[in-house]
Design a protein that fits this description.
alpha/beta, 4 strands, elongated
C-alpha cells in the first residue's frame, strides 16, 4: 500500500515518499538557540522556533514495485530520489 511518511528513514527503508523536517537543520537551529542561552540571554525572552526547512524524499524502487508512475515535476522538486 503506498504511504507517505514524516521521516526520511521510512522512505530509505522502503516506504514510498517522506515529507518532513530536515533534522540536520533542526539540530543546527537548536545549537544556535543553546549558544544564545549560554551567552547570557534569558530563555523566556527567546522566540519559539519552528522548523524552517523540510525535505521530500521519493523511493523510486518502491514506486516501481507498486507499479506507480511518479510525475517528473514531483521528482524534480524532491530533495532526494532513492533509486
Amino acid at each position: 500500500m503506498p504511504s507517505i511518511y514524516q521521516f526520511r528513514e521510512f522512505a530509505a527503508a522502503g516506504g514510498l515518499i517522506s515529507y518532513g523536517t530536515d533534522f540536520a537543520d533542526a539540530y543546527r537551529q537548536s545549537g544556535v538557540y543553546a549558544g544564545r542561552i549560554l551567552k547570557g540571554e534569558k530563555p523566556g525572552d527567546l522566540p519559539i522556533l519552528q522548523p524552517t526547512k523540510f525535505e521530500l524524499v521519493i523511493n523510486l524502487k518502491t514506486a516501481k514495485a507498486l507499479a506507480l508512475t511518479i510525475p517528473e515535476t514531483l521528482l524534480a522538486t524532491a530533495d532526494e530520489v532513492i533509486q
